[in-house]
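G., before I forget:
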Amino acid sequence: MTAVTGTPEPDAAHPAHGLDEVVHQRVRLGILTITHEARRVEFGYLRTQLQLTAGNLSKHLSVLEQAGLIEVEKGYEGRRGRTWLTLTAAGTTALTDEIRRLKQLIARVETTDNPEDR
Amino acid sequence: MNTEAMHAGGDPRQLLSEVRALAHRVRVDQRMTWVALLVLAVVTLAGIPFDWFGMRLTCHADGSCEFARRGVFYYWPPALLLAYATISFWYVRTARSRGLGARVMPYAITGAVTTVVFTAAWVAAALYFPSHPAPIDPLPYWWFVLDRLVAPWGVIGVALLVLARLERNVALLLFTLAYLALVLLVLPMNLGFGPPHWQIRAGLAVPQLITGVVLLLGAAGFRAAARRQHR
């Protein structure tokens, strides 16, 4: 006997249902993208590219670090403190999944936009 | 993108477009293409006197000559390895100063591997040809192309293809394809070049000079493009 619930399979549902709230956020998606592309990125570069205040960027980095998506390494170069970020394996997977779901969403919108379907 | 725009979600098309733009920005900031081409140009031009003075040349009474390019054999393997180490160092240093990691290691590894392949091919040829008669039938065209591909000027192009892929740099890909076409199909890098009355040494120096100048011009072009992009 198989129990039947009203919840559809995640993949059969609308792609928006699978979006990870931690990643599906403009700034955090930007942080993950830059870190993935750069392999390793410094706090100052992120702040410049994303046009954020240091405090604001720190808040987003905390969210990503607590979710296990990035690793933060603090150190010094001479007397200057520098914070470097790297993506974890979970971060790479989360970014890949987010981009896949965004593409699915776009494909779905384009399908429903087809005049023949109206 | 700013703090006010940090609402969740948004138009997926716009988000994806922003992701692509950010990734492209990072790749552009990681590039030091002109340094790679400049180092390779310097190595190529510096190799000309080594080839010239290191060549063992024996001319016979009938006017025919035999030559062995000892200078190329002894100069190029350490020069190429040093060049790839220098390029890697500059890539890592510059990327770090910009607050980024570098993606140059696969290029350096490819460069080192192709240098080993070139050296092994030249050692094999040096061991084989003195004890075997020269072929009577003319060698096929592809053999000459392969011979040029495993020469130092060819392996430089092969490694540059890897760099173009790593950087997803279409301009470098086009430059490298044109460079390889020049080296493999146009310039006779192993047979001499120039009017018949030219000496063998001069005939072999001219293609290297052209190759070095092409790399130098490439370095200047990519340097100018990089300055425009970072303004």
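Residues 1-9 of chain B have pLDDT under 50 and may be disordered. The helical segments of chain B are 12-30, 33-54, 70-97, 105-128, 141-149, 152-167, 170-186, 200-230.

More on Monday.
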